[in-house]
Design a protein that fits this description.
Layout (H helix, E strand, L loop, with lengths): L1 H21 L3 E6 L7 H4 L7 E7 L3 H11 L6 E2 L2 H8 L3 E4 L6 H8 L5 E5 L6 H14 L3 E4 L6 H12 L5 E9 L10 H7 L9 H4 L1 H11 L7 E7 L12 E7 L4 E7 L6 E8 L2 E5 L4 E8 L3 E8 L10 H10 L12 H20 L3 E2 L3
Parallel strand pairs: 1-2, 1-4, 2-3, 4-5, 5-6, 7-10
Antiparallel strand pairs: 7-11, 8-9, 8-15, 9-10, 11-12, 12-13, 13-14
Helix pairs in contact: 5-6, 6-12, 10-12
Length: 368
């Protein structure tokens, strides 16, 4: 009886120990503070999934400003990734600097087995993305890309309805993203500096907001690559964006569908919305929470259902919860999930072709 009790106690103790170990927060390092989206992690409430252990930022003035605003100690701020990794040994890193530096982050982290999440887009070019992918696969790390629209409940609902055949076979998708322009909306000087640099950002609005539509379309099409990419860009605010485009239209053709992406720094009202058209109806994902579904009736008539959606369930409600869950092996991303590397390699192929098309003023054919 005593031995049976001892055995049962040991089993319970091992189970509790295993559970505690599994839920131990992932140690996260933040590389760069110049990206305006860094507030996402700096202002995040303390949870048991991720704990920020170090920051890399050479601009001490910027680091001090954000320290004053968000309350992290300046002792957490290091001058290099090597210094931070040696001091605090992060298990994962989130990149919040310029897009050009994403490759360098993976080059340092991957051989050390440190998982990486970067802000969209994955890279400044397909060449950079391919090097990052090779490193991630070689060293078996997770390499994820964060898009705000990945966490929109309306986009998930639209995807599900499309897969269920609610509006019939897909024929056209229109994705519109952007705002008045980084300078007009008052982003920080550090953020503006790299957003409007063709080297550090890979382009202007075509990269900054074109990536959203390319990412969503790759998800909707479950990894189908477009047959062709055609892009036209303009510079409507040369005084604010002298080195890069600030308005773009990108057309993607598929065997039986088309996508029109409209990334712009010239929208009078900020937006991230999507329209999906099938043979029987249309889905309008108007914003994060509001969505409409119209089913055709006759020539121009339709039956409409409106949705007001709440936030997605954890860990799919924000990037850091899902990052931790994926690292722990608790969550496996769906096929061509917007967050996934397989999706974002195709997204980068689309963006590269769009940039080439806009420069050459011709359609780029993609080999399938």
């Amino acid at each position: 009886m005593k031995n049976a009790f001892s055995l049962s106690f040991c089993v319970i103790l091992l189970t509790l120990t295993s559970t505690f170990a599994q839920k131990k927060p992932i140690k996260l390092g933040v590389v760069g503070l110049t990206h305006g989206h860094v507030g996402w992690i700096l202002s995040r409430e303390a949870k048991d999934d991720i704990i920020m252990v170090g920051i890399v930022e050479t601009n001490r003035d910027l680091a001090q400003r954000l320290s004053n605003k968000h309350g992290f100690p300046m002792e957490m701020v290091f001058n290099s990734m090597e210094e931070m990794i040696a001091a605090v040994k992060p298990e994962a890193v989130a990149g919040f600097g310029n897009i050009y530096d994403h490759l360098a982050i993976v080059e340092i982290c991957a051989p050390k087995g440190i998982h990486v999440m970067v802000e969209k887009p994955l890279a400044v070019s397909l060449e950079h993305a391919q090097k990052m992918e090779a490193l991630a696969k070689k060293h078996k790390i997770h390499l994820l890309t964060n898009y705000e629209t990945s966490w929109y409940p309306t986009n998930l609902k639209a995807y599900e309805l499309l897969q269920e055949g609610t509006i019939g076979d897909l024929r056209k998708v229109i994705v519109r993203d952007g705002h008045k322009g980084p300078k007009k909306i008052g982003v920080s000087a550090e953020f503006l500096n790299f957003l409007t640099d063709p080297i550090l950002n890979g382009g202007g609005a075509i990269m900054d907001f074109g990536c959203y539509g390319a990412n969503l379309m790759t998800w909707l099409q479950q990894g189908k690559r477009p047959n062709s990419v055609t892009a036209v860009t303009q510079q409507l605010q040369p005084e604010n964006n002298p080195k890069v485009d600030d308005d773009a239209t990108i057309i993607l053709t598929y065997d039986s569908a088309m996508a029109i992406l409209e990334p712009s720094w010239n929208w009078p009202i900020g937006r991230k919305d999507m329209e999906i058209y099938g043979l029987k109806g249309a889905i309008y994902a108007d914003n994060r929470h509001d969505m409409r579904v119209r089913i055709s009736e006759g020539y121009s008539g339709f039956k409409e259902e409106a949705f007001k959606l709440g936030e997605r369930d954890a860990p799919y409600d924000e990037p850091f919860s899902l990052f931790a869950s994926v690292i722990r092996g608790e969550t496996t991303l769906g096929s061509y999930d917007p967050y996934s590397l397989e999706n974002n390699m195709i997204t980068m192929e689309i963006l590269e072709a769009a940039v080439q098309s806009s420069k050459s003023q011709r359609t780029i054919q993609l080999k399938n």
